[in-house]
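for the writeup, i need someone to sanity check this before i put it in the appendix. the sequnce is what the collaborator sent (i think, or maybe the updated version? ugh). structure was predicted straight from it, no edits. if anything looks off just tell me and ill rerun, i have time this weekend
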Amino acid sequence: MDKNYQKRKAAYISLIIGFLMFSGKITAYLITGSAAIFSDALESIVHIFATGMALFSIYLSSKPADESHFYGHGNVEYFSAGIEGILIIVAALAIIYESVNALVTGIEIQKLDVGIIIISGAGFINLFLGLFLIRVGKKTDSLTLVADGKHVLTDSVTSIGVIIALGIVLLTDIKELDPILAIIIAANILFTGFKLIKESVSGLMNETDQKTLESITSIIIESKRNYWIDVHQMRFWKSANKLFLDFHLILPFYFSIKQSHQEEEYIAKKVKEEFPESEVKIHFDYCWDDLCSYCLTENCEFRKANFSNKIIWNKEKILGKTVIPAPRSE
């Protein structure tokens, strides 16, 4: 199934459920007057706005590269995740304000049993929705869906906290516990918002993804052929579900352009097995006499020395900017 279709479908499901959850929670708030329920309802409003932006970013990121965006539009997903983080923080601050105001001006709550039933149903639905969005997001390499899923899970945790708070208030009749727990919930929401913003900034700044780095280096090392003499200066960056990879590869100097191109196709095929939406560009260097002792190429009629020095291909070597030994200046 097309990844863009999966992403759009998941976002639409999230948006529809978001409207349903908000309707239920705001009804529960109007019935009970609970600050904790209000905090839960306010977070659902953020969910609706955030999912709407997620839909837009998924649509835009799925567009092919054009003359104004040579590398496509995938980075909009990082921007979307950052906006969602900001909205979450705004919602948390609003919850804190309303809760403190309730503590100062007085607390009037009623029919908490009805509120508990409604919020319990909403929390249960959001739990499954959040897990679904994260699963689809990881499957389609969509930071936007993963961010939306984490937000929905936070919403589910919020609902659990609200249920506990209302249960305690019912048992003890200590109404002040309602806004106090709402403030605690808001603090947790703040943490989630700042975390999303950090992930967004990391993506926009092309911060190296260590998991992807390990995967790429493993692919190159496992794919190595005897006549690949040395590799260095590997770089990559991700844009949504797209991966752009380039590095230098030293081949025997007598390889034709066709042979070198076949090596690039071979490597690109190996990379696509793990990263289907990837582009691989290789800068080919040719060997020189001093590399003969490092070369495993068989039946080389131009060999000046037997193989005696093994180059250890690891992450540090692949990322390095130099080869051993360096070419002599002419």
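The first strand starts at residue 230 and ends at 239. The mean pLDDT is 82.
thx in advance!!
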